[in-house]
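Example with several molecule types.
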Amino acid sequence: MKNEEIIDFDLSRLSLPELIEAYEDIEDFLNFLKENKIEEDDLDE
Amino acid sequence: MNNFLDFIKKDIEAKRTLVSTMPTKTKTNIKKLNQTIDNISNKYINYKTSLVNYLLVKSRSFELKDDNNYVNTDKLNEKIINLEHVKFLLNPSNTYFEKMGFDTLLYQINNYTTFNFDSLNDIINGFLDKFELVGISLTKDDFNYTCYVHEYMASFLEVRTKKTKNYDKTAEIFEQIYWINPELIEHIELNFRKLIKSNEKKFNNYIIESQKEAMRDNKIENYNDCLEKLKSLYIDLNLAKKETVSDIIALVKKSELDIDQLKEGSKARINAYNTLVPKDIDPNDQKEMAKICNILEKLKLNIEEYNNYLEFLPLFNEFKDEYLSLVPKDGEEKPYKGLKEIEERINAKENELEKINRKIFSGKPGFFEFKSDNDLKHLKRESVIKAKELYELYKVFDEEYFKDKVMSILSNTLTIMDVLNLYYSFDYFKKLAISKAYNTTNFEEISKYSENFDLFAMNTTNIIVAGLPVFDERNISKIIANKYNLNSIKLTEEDLSEDNLIPLLNKILLILRINKIENSKTSIEKIWFISKVNKIMSSDEKR
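Resulting structure tokens for the full complex:
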């Protein structure tokens, strides 16, 4: 998993619009994850 | 090294598929799903934190050091305020009356219904302060316009002398008098008018001394010298205050300017260039664009001036309707006597009032004592009627006073600039004219118009109104369009119609801003980036 650490990416290689795009993609994805989480208390076995 | 964007795009796609296809039938399934989501979320929150830090550092590196010299502007402003005061004192169009600020106080006392009792006291104190400024300490004996004015002002002066600011007793007296003499405030105004008139010499001397002092302190020779120096200071101030790239960045950050409109290919940018940049000019040719922008800066000032003119067109039209028929024909100029006539009528009536007052104050209607209270009541009623008549005469006087000033400059070559200077010099009449032209009696609204009018009148970059005749129709849109057509900027009259002025101004601003940014150390893309990061940070702060 080490290659997934952000430290291993050279952000300076990204253009300014790409940097913003990366942020927006992450933000969208985090929202997606939040929406897909299911409350465990509400469910029966 | 891997490309971060490519990596997250692929990774996100894979992980979205994973999350979407994980079973959710049992609690164990759900626990597993949630655990997977938590793991992925933690990783991506870390990514986000690192990325945001990077964005912030990068965005800060694009900020420009302040390219505006504020110290310089402050000093310039201070000099301008001083010279504006000298200009006000030296203004040859008006008299000690306006220079002392009596016209402003008169306007306020005329509109006393807008204020409360405290504000009325402030206005009266304002008058008294001005007398004290020239060394005149008014006493209750000076307020003898009517016995009611005397009674009220005696109480008022008592509080003023004691400096207690407790006007409760005065308010009681006011209320008692008000039901017998509801025009009390109007008569106090007349008493002040009379006192100002009788002390004219002292006020004039005070103004002359103030003028000398102001000229000496500011090294000014005369009025014209003052105007020249002011003009040069305003040029410096306009240069110092010229919008900088830092200002543009600040506007973008405050979301007051949409940076997307400045980007290449944007509809607004294409539209602005199509309207204002000649077809044969390459927008990438910096030298040519610098020339165009120079012309556009001038066009911008012309449009702003024209826009101001249109705002006050009702006022100029009102002036035109009022005075067109009085414009002297060639060889027909004769001195205007209206003011002198009304002054004589006022003096005569004030003498009559004084005679009645003498009887009231001495307690003797003639050679004999009052026979009954009725005699005294009758005289008091008579004095109030006379004062009421005088108030009407003073209204005529005001009209004649201003008319006299107008007649002294009225000709068929009178320009809008002359009218600007005239109303700028006579605050009271400017406000009356505004009230009439805009059909409003709202004090705040009139004050706002008046402030804007003064700013317009003071603007040293005014150039169109200097040659614009009041009594002759001119198509200003056509004049401006023709002028700039000569500079290859193809404007139509339609472009300069009232409704299109602000959109046209915005197009000019857009081109000027693009040019400014492109000739600076930064770029539109960098400013766009700063604005995006700014939005990210503020939305993060809100969470």
